[in-house]
Every structure is written in C-alpha cells, then in structure tokens.
Amino acid sequence: MKVLYLLVCAAPPAHETKTVVRALQQAGWDVWVIATPQATRWIDMTALTQLTGHPARSDYRLPGEADPLPPAHAILAMPLTFNTINKWACGISDTLVTGLLCEALGRGTPPIVAVPCLKMDLVRHPAFQKHINLLRESGVHVLHEPERYKSPQMVPLEEVIETLQAVTAHQEAHE
After folding, report:
1. What distance lies between CA 96 and its chain's CA centroid?
2. Model pTM?
3. Is residue 65 one of the residues assigned to a domain?
4. Does position 131 have pLDDT exceeding 90, yes or no?
C-alpha cells in the first residue's frame, strides 16, 4: 500500500477529515495525518489515529527520537490555508506541516497535491497568486480554480483522488 501524508490546516473542510481519510483508504492509500497546531482544534486527532492505525501528529519529533513517519509516495495538503500557502512558498518552516512541505519541495519528491481553501478576499490578495504560481512552477499540483469552485468550497474529493492517482502513476513511470 502506498503511503500518503494528509496535511490538514484549519479551514472549514478540516471537519470532514475522517470522510477524506476513509475515501483515500478505499482508493488504496495508507494515510498518515499531520495537522497544523491550529487544525488540531478542528479535528479529532484520537479518532484519526484509530481510523488510520497511525499516530496523528502536529509536532516535530524531539532530537534523538526515531522518525515515526515512513517515506511518503505522495503528499496531499488539504485543506490548505492562505497562511500555510504563503509560509510554504517563502520557505518558512515553523510547523511540522510547513516543514514537511518545504523539505519535499526542496527535495523534489514525493509529488505534492495542494488543495487551497480560502475566502475570495484572500484569493485576490497579491501574495496568494504570486505564491501559487511559484508552487506550480516548482512542480506542485495545485487544485484551485476560484471561478469553478467558489470560496470557501473546495475541489470535489473524487477529483482530488484522481489527481493523486495520476501524479503518482506519472512519477512511477519516470522512475
């Protein structure tokens, strides 16, 4: 089974994380949930640990501790907030979520699918489009079409899973 890091930020769709995990598991993914500290207030970390069979995390490990995360075949950042998008694009690694995103982007692997969820006022902020363009140019698969999916709605889960399958199949074909 392929390992997927599901990175969760504090946005309304975070309330649906259990549903997302179940759908990803049905699609064949071994899901590891990593949340921003703020997102831990929006989701049930204990229930997600039970559902996935893996500790849901939000903090860095301490020096000398073994890394509990296996290598990922893909990363899904969903929902991804304005704050996290901008920090990630600027290389600010102040949470486990942004740290994993920054490291993966710097390494060039695994493939990353990013699903922003933010208000239209933030979509129109000049930093947002600049940083989305930077992330796309860096190989991130950003699923964000504000004209098609009105804020704060997100891309349908089926489309997210299809994109994950496509980007991982593409990576495997080129390895």
Report:
1. 12
2. 0.94
3. no
4. yes
Q: Is residue 167 part of a domain?
A: yes
Domain containing residue 21: 2-60+70-173
Give per-residue pLDDT as tens, 31-86. Answer: 999 999 999 999 999 999 999 999 999 999 888 888 889 999 999 999 999 999 99
CATH number at residue 35: 3.40.50.1950
Q: Is 57 exposed, middle or buried (0-12, 13-18, 19+ CB in 10 A)?
A: buried
Which is nearest to 49 in space by CA: 58, 60, 41, 37?
Answer: 58
Contact 33, 100 (CB under 8 A): no
Q: In the predicted model, is pLDDT for residue 151 greater than 60?
A: no
Rounded-to-10 torsion of CA 108, 175, 70, 163: 70
Q: Are 8 and 79 a contacting pair, CB within 8 Å?
A: yes
Confidence at residue 27, expressed as pLDDT on a 0 to 100 scale: 97
Six-digit token string for 87: 């920090």
Report if residue 17 sits inside a domain. yes
